TrEMBL record:
Gene that produces this protein: fdxB
Superkingdom in the source lineage: Bacteria
Cofactor field: [4Fe-4S] cluster
InterPro entries xref list: 4Fe4S_Fe-S-bd (IPR017896), 4Fe4S_Fe_S_CS (IPR017900), FdIII_4_nif (IPR014283), Fe-S_Ferredoxin (IPR050572)
UniProt keyword terms in alphabetical order: 4Fe-4S, Electron transport, Iron, Iron-sulfur, Metal-binding, Nitrogen fixation, Repeat, Transport
Free-text function comment from the UniProt entry: Ferredoxins are iron-sulfur proteins that transfer electrons in a wide variety of metabolic reactions.
Annotated GO MF terms: 4 iron, 4 sulfur cluster binding; metal ion binding
Record-given protein name: Ferredoxin III
Domain 4Fe-4S ferredoxin-type: 20-49, 68-98
SUPFAM superfamilies, alphabetized: alpha-helical ferredoxin (SSF46548)
Keyword Amino-acid biosynthesis among UniProt keywords: no
Species for this entry: Blastopirellula marina
Coiled coil (residue ranges): none
Length: 98
């Protein structure tokens, strides 16, 4: 976190540094939808793993038993609450301050 980064305030007036979602690991995601449901913004969308594989040369990394995978649709809509990471059973998301 840097002095020039995005810093919010809690209702009590304390500084709060949002941790914005940076990436989602498609190799560990099981497509459970928990992050999609909990996210208060329009950051995620469920995608067909087959469609994702067509855009990725490294097919061996994916578990093809899971037909659906969560992807980041609009990272710029993230408010950095980290709710997605709290509910993800597979630790798929990474976050960073801006
Ligand atoms: S940090 Fe919050 S707003 Fe951002 S993607 Fe996760 S749940 Fe959505
Ligand atoms: S909560 Fe985790 S495992 Fe479930 S869809 Fe989201 S990223 Fe994938």
């Amino acid at each position: 976190m840097s002095a020039s980064g995005i810093v919010g305030k809690t209702r009590g007036g304390s500084d709060w540094v949002p941790q914005f979602v940076q990436s989602l690991d498609a190799t560990t995601c099981i497509g459970c939808g928990r992050c999609f449901k909990v996210c208060p913004r329009n950051v995620f969308e469920l995608a067909s793993r087959e469609d994702l594989l067509e855009e990725d040369d490294d097919e061996d990394e994916f578990d093809t038993d899971n037909s659906m995978v969560m992807v980041i649709r609009d990272a710029m809509d993230c408010i950095g609450c980290q709710a997605c990471s709290k509910v993800c059973p597979k630790d798929c998301h990474t976050h960073a301050a801006a």
